[in-house]
Amino acid sequence: MQKKIPTRKCVGCGEMKEKKELIRIIKTPEGEILVDTTGKANGRGAYICSNAECFRKAVRNKALRDPLNLQFPPMCLSVLKKELG
Question: One digit per residue, pLDDT tens: the chain, 85 residues?
């Protein structure tokens, strides 16, 4: 019997991929926006591919705003863009 591999949907391109292939961006209970490298941090999360095109699509379509339930300030977006590559 094979173990089930968890999948998540990228908010940029909309493709289903293995959870470990995606980057998780979270909003902590304190309201901070962080890149969750462990995939286990407490907070509301959204998953995105690690390429710049998916990030641009997610920002253009405001796809990160809805899952995290907030409006991103421009400075926060530039920091995330640097962290994602």
Answer: 788 999 999 999 999 999 999 989 888 888 888 888 888 888 888 899 988 888 888 888 888 777 776 666 666 666 666 766 6
Tally of domains in the chain? 1
Assigned domain for 61 exists = yes
Q: pTM for this structure?
A: 0.76
User: Do residues 63 and 12 lie in contact, with contact meaning Cβ atoms separated by under 8 Å?
Assistant: yes
What is the bridge-based pairing of β-strands 16-18 and 23-27? Answer: unpaired
What's the CATH number where 53 sits? 3.30.1230.10
